Amino acid sequence: MRSAVFLAITMLLLASIDGLFSGCSQDTRYQVLSFFFEGVPKPGEKSEVKPMVGRPRRPPPPVATVTPTPTAEVVVAKEEHGRDWLAQLLPKLPKDKSGKPDMVRALNEKLISPKPGIDPKAKAQAPFSLDVDLVPKGQPAMKVVFSHKYHTQWMGCPSCHPALFKMKKGADEIKMAQLYAGKSCAVCHGKVAFPATTCARCHKGMGGGK
């Protein structure tokens, strides 16, 4: 809008000047016009229209480039067995009198071979042969014989001592209420071993097997 107004005013000004000096000589017109404008041709010269040359544009600032950090390749270890390996294995194992898998018998018959630990560098330890009689007060028929041999075939001593049981016979009073609450022996039994509610497996006086 401003450009149009300026152009109109300029044209009117030029027309006024041209009308004002129409009766003057060419020299007079040249002197007056050259006073106000640049590039006015002298009398007898042809005007040359020169192309407008603008200033070169300032180059844009350089764009900072950030080299992305390469993502580490994720290597997924190939499973030695399928995810349903346990469901396929359990029906093949021998059963106790309650119908549960008898893992001790399966171990003795070499149907299974536990690894010493989840660490590939874990070293196997020799089983520790020691039976401990646990007799509830006033209930000799409910005696439990705890076999260190069976347990140390599966795990090392630090798995239970001293966090779960003290290293002294009789130092820990084991009650069934603790097992029902998931404590004591039930930290493993009922999760990765036969349930603590399979009474005859531990209380031999109730007609349990091995």
Shape assignment: rod-shaped
Task: Name the CATH superfamily classification of the domain at 122-206.
Answer: Cytochrome C3
Q: What is the helix fraction of residues, given as a range? A: 10-25%
Report the CATH C-level class of the domain at 122-206.
Alpha Beta
Which band does the percent of strand residues land in? under 5%
Low-confidence stretches: none
Q: For the terminal residues, how far apart are their CA atoms?
A: 104 Å
The ordered string of helix (H) and strand (E) elements is HHHHEEHH
Question: How many helical stretches?
Answer: 6
Let me know the average pLDDT: 79
Physical arrangement of strands within the biggest beta sheet: 1-2
CATH topology of the domain at 122-206, what is it called?
Cytochrome C3
Given helix and strand content, the structural type is mainly alpha
Number of E-type strands:
2
Assigned CATH architecture of the domain at 122-206: Alpha-Beta Complex
Largest sheet: 2 strands, antiparallel
Rg, nearest Å: 51 Å
Task: Give an account of the 3D structure.
By secondary structure, this protein is mainly alpha-helical. It has a domain at 122-206: Cytochrome C3 (Alpha-Beta Complex), CATH 3.90.10. The chain contains six helices and two strands. The chain has helices at 2-20, 26-36, 85-89, 103-108, 148-152, 176-180; strands at 131-134, 144-147. The protein starts with a helix and ends in a 30-residue tail after the last helix.
